[in-house]
Amino acid sequence: MTTTHTGLDVRKIGGRIGAEVVGLDLSTPLDAGTVSELTAALLAHKVLVFRGQHLDDAGQVRFAAAFGPLTTAHPTVPALDGNEHILPVEGGEGARANNWHTDVTFVHTPPKASTLRALIVPPYGGDTLIANTAAAYADLPEELRLLADRLWAVHTNDHDYATHPQFRTDEAVERHKVFVSRRYSTAHPVVRVHPESGERGLFIGGFAQRLVGLSHTESRDILRLLQSYVTRPENTVRIRWSSGDLVLFDNRITQHYAADDYGDLPRRLHRVTVAGDVPVGVDGRRSHVIEGDEADHFTPKAA
């Protein structure tokens, strides 16, 4: 099926999320009209896939910057040498993101959008799964939606990856130390209103550690229940990478997961993220910092 966005060939690849943009060359700067059409397609499909682009680092940065000011690579993890905007994503011990999450939600102003570019991919495995959190919210029974509308979650970068025995290698522990070298904790609405589309989506994922006003046990059970709607197969799309592919996804209304099913084979992606705004809940309240600064070294301040 093809969806017409003026001059773009945009083909759905999932029932509720995802589309492939066919025939568009990203090796040269995009004009304003094309960027506008891509933005409309991104709002409609949440994830856009561009096959076989083979961009270099500068090309990926240029493409991402067409959608707004860029963040630096990460609040705590070092950037690629020579480019402050690029985060290398490699499948080393303790570095695999096989945990459903939305990028950098532990800061006050999480990214608007993320781009991933495949440099080295294994011959099998290593797919990225991406979920539509608006579809998840729409799936909730009415009484559960009403509860979710009122909840706030505390997101922190002091995540629990390294506490699992199978991940507690020396390399994993060192990576964890870097990740939490600055500690961040932010309260976000569990239901975020998208600033452009007005859609409501579940804004939770791996960095959401507890719910405001509830115990850790209550928080864990409710977050697990809500998260189960996000990861329903109907609400996800699976990206099978080939070297040179580029994926753009809306970080405000998706979660993603990198499947750890490729053994010790090499896998390398580069990530560039577009700066976002402060999340807003259904009652109009905005997120607020609990611990740490506003990460101005990572992302421009929202208006």
Task: Looking at this protein, list some descriptive labels.
303 residues, alpha+beta, Double-stranded beta-helix, eight-stranded mixed β-sheet, four-stranded antiparallel β-sheet, 6 helices, 17 strands, disordered N terminus, dioxygenase, AtsK-like, TauD/TfdA family dioxygenase
Topology:
Elements: E1 2-5, E2 8-12, E3 19-22, H1 32-45, E4 47-50, H2 57-65, E5 87-90, E6 113-120, E7 128-132, H3 133-139, H4 142-150, E8 152-156, H5 170-179, E9 185-189, E10 191-193, E11 200-202, E12 208-211, H6 216-230, E13 236-239, E14 246-250, E15 254-258, E16 268-274, E17 288-291
Parallel strand pairs: 3-4
Antiparallel strand pairs: 1-2, 2-3, 4-14, 5-16, 6-14, 6-16, 7-13, 7-15, 8-9, 8-12, 9-17, 10-11
Description:
By secondary structure, the protein is of the alpha+beta class. It has a single domain, classed as Double-stranded beta-helix (4-Layer Sandwich), CATH 3.60.130. Helix content is 21%, strand content 26%. The protein contains six helices and 17 strands. The protein has helices at residues 32-45, 57-65, 133-139, 142-150, 170-179, 216-230, and strands spanning 2-5, 8-12, 19-22, 47-50, 87-90, 113-120, 128-132, 152-156, 185-189, 191-193, 200-202, 208-211, 236-239, 246-250, 254-258, 268-274, 288-291. The strands form four sheets. Strands 1-2-3-4-14-6-16-5 form an eight-stranded mixed beta sheet, covered by helices on one side. The chain is globular, with a radius of gyration of 18 Å. It starts with a strand and ends in a 12-residue tail after the last strand. Mean pLDDT is 91; it is low at 1-5. Its cofactor is Fe(2+). It comes from Planosporangium thailandense. Residues 10-273 form the TauD/TfdA-like domain. One of its GO terms (molecular function) is dioxygenase activity. Belongs to the TfdA dioxygenase family.
